[in-house]
């Protein structure tokens, strides 16, 4: 009698192999999206805040994640309203090699940054990678936004990274000296208005007094003239009487 047990076992394994393979594929298909979801999308973060006019704050520029590492980048940042805030300077972290000096426009409205990871220190999977620090100075009270005008980010091996970008708000408060000057100007204006009102009142009172004096003079003016006429008449009468006497 032939023993078919090994054949039966192999047959069972072959028969069970197909369902197991299907189960493995299903599990793998569910795992890949989960792994992809666990990797955050790279973005460029500009961490701004508030600053007083005439003061300068340091603004970190950060790549939130580098799934494939970082070979280098070129960025241009811009301020929507340079009359409120402007770029003054910028610097790179030590582990990034300098390729060009930061370039700032004449009005301080844009800054161009470019650097490279020459020593391969930023490995795949790195997060919160500092790219640069820019100096932002408040010019006048108000609010403006800093945006990424353009970006080119390369991963290790030459792959292109397209990080998300979002504008960030910068609030500039008036300086203490500006507020003091404004208060002094307002106080000076109020004092000038009060002085003008007082002068107007005094002029009105003087005009009224002058009118009263002129009225009294006009009323009393005819009296001396009548007395003079009466005196002349008396003298004429006396002269006539004297001429009639022998």
Question: How would you explain this protein's 3D organization?
Answer:
It is built from 3 helices and 13 strands, in the order αβββββββββββββαα. The protein is rod-shaped. β10 and β11 (160-161) form a beta hairpin. It has helices at 5-38, 176-220, 222-244; strands at residues 43-46, 50-52, 56-66, 72-79, 85-91, 97-98, 103-104, 110-116, 126-138, 142-154, 160-161, 164-165, 168-173. 41% of the residues lie in helices and 33% in strands. Strands 2, 4, 6, 7, 8, 10, 11 and 13 form an 8-stranded mixed β-sheet that branches. The protein has a 5-stranded mixed β-sheet with strand order 5-9-3-1-12, with no helix packed on it. The chain has 246 residues and is an alpha+beta fold. Mean pLDDT is 76; it is low at 5-38 and 215-219. 14% of the residues are buried. It has a domain at 43-173: Immunoglobulin-like (Sandwich). This is Cell surface protein. Keywords: Membrane, Transmembrane, Transmembrane helix. The chain crosses the membrane at residues 221-240. Residues 166-210 have a biased composition (Low complexity). Residues 151-221 are annotated as: Disordered.
Please outline the helices and strands.
Layout: H1 5-38, E1 43-46, E2 50-52, E3 56-66, E4 72-79, E5 85-91, E6 97-98, E7 103-104, E8 110-116, E9 126-138, E10 142-154, E11 160-161, E12 164-165, E13 168-173, H2 176-220, H3 222-244
InterPro entries: CBM2/CBM3_carb-bd_dom_sf (IPR008965)
Protein name: Cell surface protein
Region (Disordered): 151-221
